[in-house]
Amino acid sequence: MTLYGGQGDPARTMALLWRAHSPATEDAPRQRTGRAAPGPKQGLTVDAIIEAAIAVADADGMDRLSMRAVGDRLGTSAMALYTYVPSKRELVDLMYDHAHAGWPQTYPTGDAPRSAVLAWADDLWDRYLRHPWLLQVSYARPVLGPHEQSVLESLLGILHGADLPPQSLRPGVSALFHLVRGAAQTAAEGRAAAAATGTSDQQWWTERSALLARLAPDFASRFPHSTALGGASSDMDYDPVRQARRALDGGLRLLLDGLLPPDD
Amino acid sequence: MTLYGGQGDPARTMALLWRAHSPATEDAPRQRTGRAAPGPKQGLTVDAIIEAAIAVADADGMDRLSMRAVGDRLGTSAMALYTYVPSKRELVDLMYDHAHAGWPQTYPTGDAPRSAVLAWADDLWDRYLRHPWLLQVSYARPVLGPHEQSVLESLLGILHGADLPPQSLRPGVSALFHLVRGAAQTAAEGRAAAAATGTSDQQWWTERSALLARLAPDFASRFPHSTALGGASSDMDYDPVRQARRALDGGLRLLLDGLLPPDD
DNA sequence: GACAACTCCGTACGCCGTAAGCTAATGTCT
DNA sequence: AGACATTAGCTTACGGCGTACGGAGTTGTC
Is the pLDDT of residue B152 over 90? Predict the structure, then answer.
């Protein structure tokens, strides 16, 4: 199920999200009271925690991400993290933003906004497949961090050059995000399913068909169009990542036909 | 985080999914051994469990859906459910399919496939907003039940009439699903956030802006396009559901411009 | 030297999914 | 009628989770 973000204390979360990037708030829980700073030195940093958490999620998946697991990786306990991070939810928010770091500031457009959009989508697709747990964090979250913001900003930069009808901008942006995200999710989950069950994609698919044929022998007559669509041609590609990627490319083509003038 | 479905024993899951709809397997765990049926009468049914679980998810959200909660609602314990359903994962799969029940078999197309697609998308949007937890179940799941299958089948029926280039069919279908699902997710989560915090959408938005202005005073110069996009006009609509719906309508328009000939 | 502020973190609580196994009910077979 | 295999229902319990709470130890200021 989707993990909803942005639910803790918004001020605290946003301070953490924008902390290093803002000239105003230098850093740290330490600074919260305006006064000095007694007490032991801090042994961890928020960034170290974020990176450890991302490492856990990348390696073992979001299901296995727990405060205890992050603590283990850092050689401490789960509770030690709570000095730096108010809760797991906030940590996920921070992970989410951090995983979008290093995004290109701009994409070369020239006279070809279409290929720039495709490059942007390709980068986002890569990012999602590299950190599939990103797709399990709600993207309707309203607490945006600086790195996520860059992803949006770079797309807007591309579209700014193309002369869109102004009322197409917002829907176009939403649609592009939804398409990439949806396709990447399909790909990531197909890949994960194959890895989890250990059966090849083709093998798995034929087993499923046999089962369906037995349980629902009238399938073909009840769902003729689905049957036609699923009809396996001999050169069928069972790899879920390639399938999803092809669907994404096609979907982007259709959408951009409606959105942009053709590159030339 | 997204709950991955379709991971239990596929044969058992599919038998449950297609059970009532198939002439072959009459029903029930009872029947699994070919032999007769000693032991106490069964006091529950799979359908009752599914419906109770959906009621819990509708009322309290997916986070609060637990086997114990479903058991409580049925006046029994959590463990009593395991006679009927192999695990929570399978139960979620069954819930997912069941929540798509009653889908229109066909949409009137006439010469207007475009409006038929829009009606289909509208129905799906409604369904998602009525059962927002559906959006937290992965839709890349390959174990399809009969009701989900009808959703796809009806769309294919519409598109069959329009003469699409054949290579546009799959990407078009994927894109339509992704658009509706993405928009509904944005809407549902915005709605949930407003309900959870108790602040009005407008109030919440202005607080967020003030916070951002303080933490990242250089926001406008670093993200000029985002700033321009977010620029609040006086007649701005803060309601997240309406916003997402408008984005969906616009996105569908763009996509269908690329996909279909205009209705007339 | 006193004290306040702070970090660190062990313990514990109430959740969760579900494995294991007992009890009692029911059918078939002798 | 009685024996017995099979099954549903359910209790108990285990190992996980997020995190509240509070004690212990460390560091700065007065």
Answer: yes
CATH of domain A113-200+238-259: 1.10.357.10
Q: Which fold has domain A10-31+40-98?
A: Arc Repressor Mutant, subunit A (1.10.10)
CATH topology of domain B10-98: Arc Repressor Mutant, subunit A (1.10.10)
Whether residue A237 contacts residue A103, with contact meaning beta carbons closer than 8 Å, is answered with no
Q: Are A70 and A25 in contact (CB under 8 A)?
A: no
**Chain A interface test: which of B93, B105, B174 (most A C-beta within 10 Å):** B174
Residue type, B197: T
Ranges of each domain in chain A:
10-31+40-98, 113-200+238-259
> Which residues are within 8 A (CB) of A248 and not within 5 positions of it... i.e. 6 or more apart?
A121, A125, A179, A180, A183, A184, B171, B174
Mutation target to probe the A interface, by most A beta carbons within 10 A, among B180, B236, B255 is B255
Q: How far apart are the C-alpha atoms of A114 and B96, rounded to whole Å? A: 37
Helical axes B113-130 vs B146-161, angle rounded to 10°: 160
Mind listing the pLDDT tens digit for each residue in A69-119?
A: 999 999 888 899 998 998 999 899 999 999 999 999 999 877 788 999 999
The predicted structure's pLDDT at residue A36: 52
Tens of pLDDT, residue by residue over A180-189, are 999 999 999 8
SS3 of B157-197: HHHHHCCCCHHHHHHHHHHHHHHHHHHHHHHHHHHHHHHHH
Using only the alpha carbons of chain A, give its radius of gyration: 23
Longest Cα separation, chain A: 76
Contact positions of strand D to protein Cβ (< 7 A): 5-12, 16-21, 25-29
Beta strands in chain B (DSSP E): none
Kindly report, residue by residue over B24-58, the tens digit of the pLDDT: 333 444 444 444 566 667 778 999 999 999 999 99
| Mean pLDDT for the stretch of residues A5-19 | 72
Q: Which token pair is B1?
A: 């985080």
> Cα separation of B181 and B128, whole Å?
8
